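Hi R.,

Here's the input for the FE2/S2 (inorganic) cluster complex you asked about:
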Amino acid sequence: MKKNKDDQDQKLTEAGNLLKAIPADRKNLIFFLHQVQDQLGYFPEELVLKAASYFSVSPAEIFGLLTFYSAFKLNQSCAHHIKVCQGTACHVRGSEAIGNEFTRLLGIEPGSYDRGKSISLETVNCLGCCAIGPVVVVDGQYQAQVNLKDVEKIVAGLTALEKSDETDEI
Ligand code: FES
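And here is the predicted structure with FE2/S2 (inorganic) cluster in place:
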């Protein structure tokens, strides 16, 4: 348990240290939010005050951005996050079937997580890389031209990871 807490503290410190490479100009705020989101899979509340003071904005403004854009998550409710793009370009390339397959295999609807709270599934509208659709993002990693077989592999991979995490904790 202590190790998990130390690991978590270490991750937060590393995410906070990303600021060192970013000029303290408010126009860089969104870039920083994305960097942390990509690194941790969510934006921790612990970093809101730090970012607010660094970029000279109010914490309320940052919370506003984090809650307005679906690209951001404020909590780490699940270990693994799957985002399925349902924007127009991905949709015409079959993303609806991709999303349905995730739902079938994981047994969860978009916007929810599995019973063990280890995998969350959500749909988003355009990830800005339409040319490589259908696009799925798994734990911050973009996967291009995803097909139904890929969905099976992604789910099998995450499920295996979860099993090995459980074994490590015993
Ligand atoms: S529609 Fe999917 S990335 Fe743009």
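One thing worth noting: Helices lie at 2-17, 29-40, 46-55, 59-68, 88-92, 95-106, 148-169.

Cheers,
M.
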